[in-house]
Write a structure and sequence with these properties.
This protein has 257 residues and is an alpha/beta fold. Helix content is 50%, strand content 13%. Helix 2 links the parallel strand 2 and strand 3.
Length: 257
Amino acid sequence: MPTALITGATAGIGAEFARQLAARGDDLVIVARDADRLARTAAELQHAHGVHVEALPADLLTDDGVAVVERRLAEANRPIDLLINNAGYGLRGDVLSTALDDELDHLAIHVTVPLRLAHTALGGMVQRGRGRVVMISSVAAYTPLGTYSAAKAWGVSFARGANLVTRAHGVTVTAVCPGFTRTEFHDRMRVSTRGIPAMLWLEAPRLVRLALRGIDRGRAVVVPTLRYRFIVALSGLVPDSLLGRFSFASASRPGEG
């Protein structure tokens, strides 16, 4: 059975990847900070799908936490066939209003940590001649939505370049770029989503089904749904000033409560 390692696997898109991969028979290594929630999630997945689920608690904003996951990825006798770099979060405010330490942590979780984990995983995968690495990016990568967009754009660029190199070795690297998806993401940021049109919302199960289809085909970039592929294509033709006004109006207003 193939084994997938998923970071940020107890909530949102990461949890849905875990459910769908377990349902198709993949064993799992799930990573998150909250050890209790992680253990409950592992038990639920094992009970529901009859696969082996290893809970690996790790705080990816610490060197020790990243090292725990790197060691697991490097285990030759228990190889990881699919790495999904999903852990991440957004920041409220723009670069003028956020603290530098917050920005550095945000950069680390979206860029430095995925790079370290991907680099470790790719070494073993290339030796074995098989494997897939996934960077969960965002349609925001194509918009001027501050440092979040910048970090997510790195994931897209990394996947495109790495995929060109690794494909010859039987290994693929894919960036998945979701649009607005109904998860805990915006609630955790405490931002309102009332300005986002209903037609732009995706449900996590559909998003992950479409993402897995592209990942399995070895695509470098997957933008789920035709509507979001159209938006991405259009973003290259619209001035940044207009894109910025739409992005901040729809997703950056403070939430209530």
